[in-house]
Design goal:
Elements lengths: L3 E5 L7 H13 L2 E7 L11 E6 L3 H12 L5 E6 L11 H7 L5 E5 L8 H13 L2 E4 L2 H10 L7 E3 L25 E6 L8 H14 L3 E6 L4 H7 L2 H12 L6 E4 L5 H10 L2 E4 L10 H8 L3 E4 L3 H6 L6 E2 L5 H13 L1 H14 L5 H18 L16
Parallel strand pairs: 1-2, 1-4, 2-3, 4-5, 5-6, 6-7, 8-9, 8-11, 9-10, 11-12, 12-13
Helix pairs in contact: 1-14, 2-3, 3-4, 6-12
């Protein structure tokens, strides 16, 4: 197995890509981490973090790339999302990859359907400089091929990894969270605008009227960047919306970043999971992937990733920003346990290739192939004195 360096946000930073990278690197093994971080967030970091890049310090990118060239790494795994890299539209990723002499594999967490010229150029240049590119859905791969003119033979599809949770009855888990006797709808992830939680909260008066035992749980801390800029203003606005609609007792905010074990418990306790995202071009969702891995009955707006993953009866799609459609679907599912179980079972069976041991094995194959194909550095000829006899 080639030794791999992962370049990404990383714990203790709280974001989905940091969690993804920890799970991937831990599963594949024989790794070291390059942590991308704001200059005012220096750590502390776990022992596997051997290098750090201050996000907005351009010189760090070339310096760390050169260090990786000389430290016995065989492959560099780059996690790409525009916002985690420094420079305009994350342009400093190109300084990094161009300074590498070690082959790189780029995992794309965002593929924009309508990028700016700058965003398109940066992504194209990153792909061109990488030995392989990984996306998490067929939709993303097709978008690269048709909208970005990327050679399809250079694109790998590896699904978003999920924990290997058992398929359990929610009522057996609810007492651990003091939710016994409740019908539970769940959303989770870092809190911030763009998740569509307003629509789900707006659906709750009708749902409460039909299913008085219902609770909608919004699990997750406020996104650290939003918290730095605005504090908890957005969370307060959601709480105010629930109060104005008279459903405060049926909307529960769990304001913390939870680890894998606690997250698994919340997922297992949920009857219905919802991603009401308004951005219909969203190309991947770790939260939806996790819900499938837990065998949940999922309700979602029809963004690109959800359309692909929830096809063929693996979930329910409703129009974006339609609180009425959300309410009708919640009520139908909460009143019909057999339907919930059927949807959840299909999602669970579909998700088995998405558990981390399978995803890690797929990445390991990509890394090994790229390492084998890398050119061997030429050994310089040394001038020898003539042999005298």
């Amino acid at each position: 197995m080639p030794r791999t360096a992962y370049v990404s946000t990383y714990a203790p930073h709280r974001c989905g890509i940091a969690t993804f990278t920890y799970d991937l690197a831990t599963t594949v093994g024989d790794r070291e981490i390059v942590a991308l971080h704001p200059a005012d967030e220096p750590g502390p970091y776990p022992a596997e973090v051997h290098h750090r890049i201050r996000r907005d310090v351009q010189a760090d990118y070339v310096a760390v790339a050169r260090a990786l060239n000389d430290c016995g790494v065989d492959v560099v795994s780059i996690q790409h999302e525009y916002g985690i890299w420094g420079g305009n539209d994350g342009a400093y990723v190109l300084d990094f990859v161009r300074a590498l002499r070690v082959p790189a594999v780029a995992t794309l967490h965002t593929v924009l359907r309508h990028p700016t010229l700058s965003q398109r150029r940066i992504l194209k240049d990153l792909i061109d400089a990488s030995a392989a590119t990984v996306v998490m859905s067929q939709t993303a791969a097709s978008l690269l091929t048709h909208a970005y003119a990327v050679d399809p033979t250079r694109v790998e599809i590896v699904p978003h990894g999920v924990p290997d949770l058992p398929l359990v009855a929610p009522d057996t888990v609810k007492p651990r969270l003091r939710l016994q006797g409740r019908s539970v709808i769940l959303s989770f992830g870092l809190l911030g605008p763009g998740k569509g939680y307003e629509s789900a909260i707006a659906a709750m008066p009708a749902v409460v009227k039909a299913v008085p035992s219902v609770s909608y749980v919004i699990l997750g801390a406020t996104h650290p960047d939003l918290l730095h800029r605005e504090g908890e203003a957005y969370r307060r606005s959601l709480e105010a919306k629930a109060a104005a609609l008279g459903v405060t007792d049926h909307v529960q905010f769990v304001d913390r970043f939870v680890g894998r074990v606690e997250l698994g418990t919340w997922l297992e306790a949920a009857d219905v999971f919802v991603t009401p995202y308004p951005n219909l071009d969203q190309i991947v969702s770790g939260t939806l992937s996790y819900a499938m891995g837990a065998g949940k009955a999922i309700v979602s707006t029809p963004y690109a990733y959800a359309r692909e993953r929830l096809a063929h009866g693996r979930g329910r799609l409703v129009p974006a920003a339609s609180s009425n459609a959300l309410a009708e679907t919640f009520i139908e599912l909460l009143r019909d346990p057999a339907l919930r179980a059927s949807l959840g079972r299909r999602a669970y069976e579909y998700s088995r290739p998405m558990v981390w041991r399978e995803v890690g094995a797929a990445y390991a194959r990509v890394f090994a192939r790229v390492a084998r194909a890398a050119p061997v550095a030429a050994i310089p000829l040394v001038s020898m004195p003539p042999i005298r006899v």
